[in-house]
Amino acid sequence: MAQNRKKKIGLIGGGQIGGNLALLAVQKGLGDVVLYDIPAAEGMVKGKALDINQLSAVDGYDCRVTGSTDWKDVAGSDVIIITAGVPRKPGMSREDLLEINLKIMKDVAGNIKQHAPDAFVINVANPLDAMVYALHKISGLPKNMVAGMAGVLDTSRFKCFVAEALGCSIRDVEALVLGGHGDDMVPLVRHSTVGGVPLTELLPKEKLDAIIKRTREGGAELVGLYKTGSAYFGPAASSIAMAESYIFDRKRVLPAAALLEGQYGISGYFFGTPVQIGAGGVEKVITVDLNAAEKAELEKSFQSVKKTVDSVTL
To answer: Considering 115, 136, 181, 191, which one is annotated as catalytic?
Structure first.
């Protein structure tokens, strides 16, 4: 009986997120992994690949990791996750990374167009909404095959802080964060529940406001603690959730930066909203019914994204 071939996962950027992505991908059996980086980082990516391969016998992982500095090894990838770029340092905003990371994205997107034009591509590099916009424009990939990872991470942070405040299981927290991956993101408190009970009935407004603020500043909090970089465990797990839904056709509904075509009154920009991810990539863009206050917050978030994206020169 013929067996389906293993999927191939191309990870562009072998830093902290890239290494964690490689480990999670083999642990979840997503497929064989190519961990790619620039020639100066050859020892790092080959070392991480060897290290992960050597642990595979402990729990019996059958997927393999290859470290490479040659785009030809990435060719034919089913999924590509982009983390390549400069991370934030204390005092920096995501937007401060635009110029340097845009240069990197132009090279990456061009190589994806040449070597892996059929891949489902997830971008993690910041400023995220502008980078995924550039990725789509340069690569020419269909709109359903490009997405930005932000909403899964931002929502996970929101859920974490809610569970911590209530002392409850995080499994019972249902929540959603919309908008851009920045300080104006929109945690939807009105749509959030814990065990089916509205969050607004469980926590006072001042506590909810503090949780919203901490969610919006979640990345900066970690940058301040790490000093030399930004988050990596959370972004890796969030990206893998999206990749897993694509590879196994889970059709999960996850918040991600997708190309909007009139939703929320926005067209031509990648912006955070729930999407259904399955074998067809971003199979549906789902909108949420918002009240006037939520619409105003979302518009503020969009204007922040629009300002950054409109400064992108391709």
So the answer is: 181
Q: What is the mean pLDDT of the chain?
A: 95
- Whether the CB-CB separation of 113 and 120 falls below 8 Å is answered with no
Q: Which two tokens stand for residue 240?
A: 């893998």
Q: Are 255 and 118 in contact (CB under 8 A)?
A: no
Cβ 183 vs Cβ 217: under 8 Å: yes
Take residue 251 and report the two structure tokens written for it. Answer: 């059709």
Question: What is the fold, at CATH topology level, of the domain defined by 151-309?
Answer: L-2-Hydroxyisocaproate Dehydrogenase; Chain A, domain 2 (3.90.110)
- Count Cβ atoms within 10 A of the Cβ of residue 179 and give its class: 0-12 exposed, 13-18 middle, 19 or more buried: buried
Phi, psi (degrees; rounded to nearest 5) at 264: 55, 20
Tell me the per-residue pLDDT of 60-72, one tens digit each, with 9 for 90 and over.
999 999 999 999 9
181 catalytic per annotation? yes
Render pLDDT for 241-271 as a digit per residue (tens, 0 to 9): 999 999 999 999 999 999 999 999 999 999 9
The DSSP line for 176-206 is -EES-SSTT-EE-GGG-EETTEEGGGTS-HH
| Total Cβ atoms within 10 A of residue 205 | 9
The partner residues of 275 in beta bridges, in order of sequence, read: 254, 285
What's the CATH code, domain 8-148?
Answer: 3.40.50.720
Is the CB of residue 20 less than 8 Å from the CB of residue 233? yes
The domain spans of the chain are: 8-148, 151-309
Amino acid at 199: L
Q: Judge if the upstream peptide bond of residue 87 is cis by omega within 30 degrees of 0.
A: no
Answer left, alpha or beta for residue 247, where phi above 0 means left and psi between -120 and 50 means alpha.
alpha
- Beta strands at 252-261 and 197-198: parallel, antiparallel or unpaired: unpaired
